Structure formats: structure tokens, C-alpha cells
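Field log, afternoon session.

UNIT: design team B
ACTIVITY: writing a sequence onto a fixed backbone
BACKBONE:
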């Protein structure tokens, strides 16, 4: 049985002091919730202090990005080796990275490979734009993104996938639970074709895109949705805790 997974992507929000306050505001209550893997992904500058706060906690830590080289003349970049002792997960392929920083499928593939080599676990984001969705190309787009990202990856140990339709990220316009589940089931079928049924049934696939405490239950009730990658709502301690708690209750009943 797949353990539900809720990750908070703080994006470019919170100074170090704010990150510390946010963790302090929800750590105690989050630790009380079992049967859910809980991850927070603050900005790079807060990884070290947040790691200290999370010692002896059930909450895990993730980074929001990395560069695929281990070291070198890449001013401003963060390598997998720099993150290996700080966190466990790394968000890769987020639509904002694709859109604003021109990350291609090939670049994301190099990042996935580098992440796995360093013993880190990728949270790989894939998803279609609004015009692609309206043109009925959702499955075509996510299949191609998945193929490019995982080219040459023979053992996707620890891989988590997040289906994030671009038109739903930060817009307040979430997909319906049924829509999201259909696409996630399709993604799982593609994983099965590449890696076999066993791995396909083990890999956790999340929904992301305007997930809130209000609509979380709709997604968690779906059989193929294993959790959520939460954006704006993860910056509010009570909202994030509610999403985690609802997930634990709903998935545990199943």
C-alpha cells in the first residue's frame, strides 16, 4: 500500500526568520499525524536552519531545484552534492522552471539522473498548459514530458511524480478530482510500460495545482491520487495541517 505524501512548495517566499516561524507553527501538530509522509520545501537559504528545527521530527525536508553538475564554475547554482546532507527530496521540472527559466525535457532529465545519483529523491512535476488541455492533448503532453524526464533512468528509486496542470497552478482554478485521477491513472499506466506493474503500483503520484484545505478531500478520495504538492496553502500553517490531516483520515479509511 502506498503511503500518502503531502509536500509543501514554498516557492520564493519566506525569509529565514519567517521560515523558522512557519515550521514552529505547525511542527507539533504535524508530528501527531501518522500514515502520511510530510515534506516541506523552503527556499535554499532556509534549508539548514529548517533541518535543525526538524531533528527528531517526522517531517521531512525537500529543496525546490538543483543543477545537474556536481561542482564547477556555475555561479549561483546549487549541486546535488550540496543538498545530499541537507534534505531528502528535490522538486524538479516544475512548470515555473520550464516557463521562466527555459528548462527543457533534456535538462530535467539530467537533473533527475543527478538527483538519483546523489541519493536524493526527485519529485518530478509534469503537466499541460491550458491550450493543450482545451485541445485534448493532456495525455500526449504528459506522456512526452514523462518520457523525456526519465530517459535512461533504469531504477527510479524513491521517485515521486506530481501531476500539475499548468492552468491550475496559482490560479485558484483546480482540476476536478475525477479529471486529476484520470490523468494520474494514465501516468501510472505509462510508468508500468517502462518499469513494470510492480514499480508502477509503488510509485506515488500526487496532484498539484491550487490545492487548498477546502478542496483537498475531493482529490484524496480518488484511488490513484496519492497526495498533493501544495503551493500557496503550504505557507499557512493551519491550511497545510488541515490538508495533511484530511489526507490521513481519508486514505486510512481505505
Amino acid at each position: 500500500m502506498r503511503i500518502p505524501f503531502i509536500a509543501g512548495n514554498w516557492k520564493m517566499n519566506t525569509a529565514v526568520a519567517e521560515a523558522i516561524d512557519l515550521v514552529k507553527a505547525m511542527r507539533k501538530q504535524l508530528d501527531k499525524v501518522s500514515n502520511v509522509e510530510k515534506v516541506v520545501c523552503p527556499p535554499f537559504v532556509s534549508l539548514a536552519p529548517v533541518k535543525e528545527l526538524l531533528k527528531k521530527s517526522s517531517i521531512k525536508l525537500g529543496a525546490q531545484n538543483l543543477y545537474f553538475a556536481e561542482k564547477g564554475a556555475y555561479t549561483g547554482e546549487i549541486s546535488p552534492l550540496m543538498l545530499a546532507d541537507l534534505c531528502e527530496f528535490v522538486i524538479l521540472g516544475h512548470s515555473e522552471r520550464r516557463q521562466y527559466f527555459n528548462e527543457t525535457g533534456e535538462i530535467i532529465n539530467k537533473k533527475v539522473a543527478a538527483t538519483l545519483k546523489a541519493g536524493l529523491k526527485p519529485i518530478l512535476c509534469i503537466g499541460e498548459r491550458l491550450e493543450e488541455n482545451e485541445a485534448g492533448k493532456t495525455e500526449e503532453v504528459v506522456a512526452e514530458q514523462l518520457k523525456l524526464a526519465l530517459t535512461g533512468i533504469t531504477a527510479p528509486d524513491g521517485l515521486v511524480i506530481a501531476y500539475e496542470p499548468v492552468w491550475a497552478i496559482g490560479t485558484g482554478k483546480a482540476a476536478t478530482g475525477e479529471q486529476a485521477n484520470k490523468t494520474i491513472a494514465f501516468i501510472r499506466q505509462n510508468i508500468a510500460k517502462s518499469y513494470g506493474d510492480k514499480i508502477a503500483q509503488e510509485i506515488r503520484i500526487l496532484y498539484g495545482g491550487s490545492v487548498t484545505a477546502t478542496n483537498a478531500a475531493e482529490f484524496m478520495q480518488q484511488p490513484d491520487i496519492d497526495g498533493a504538492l501544495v503551493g500557496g496553502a503550504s505557507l499557512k500553517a493551519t491550511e497545510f495541517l488541515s490538508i495533511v490531516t484530511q489526507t490521513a483520515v481519508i486514505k486510512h479509511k481505505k
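LOG NOTE: The first strand starts at residue 5 and ends at 9.
NEXT ACTIVITY: expression trials, pending approval
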